[in-house]
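Example record

One chain of 100 residues, shown exactly as stored in the release files.
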Amino acid sequence: TVLFVATRAGIATVTLPTDYPTLARKAADFRAACADPRREYRAAASELHRLLLAPASRHLAGRKRLVVCPDGALWDIPFQALRDGKGRFLAEGVEVVYAY
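Predicted structure tokens for this chain:
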């Protein structure tokens, strides 16, 4: 599974530490947890951040806006609600917008 990071400096590819079936399952679990106020979502939010964004942290450092072009199961997750290693929501640090 690969993440493409496009900046003015160019395009970088980052191999993610997971496969698509695992990622799809974790995305579905996170979405379900976000939709049900009785379910715990924090661990899933942190795990998806670790899998999806942490590997690209050097490319994303200092950015003010993150344009997410999700594919497949990733369309179903609210990226704003992902939590970094310090427990902060992604939306607390960057503007998150979506594109096709």
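Notes: The longest helix spans residues 20-35.
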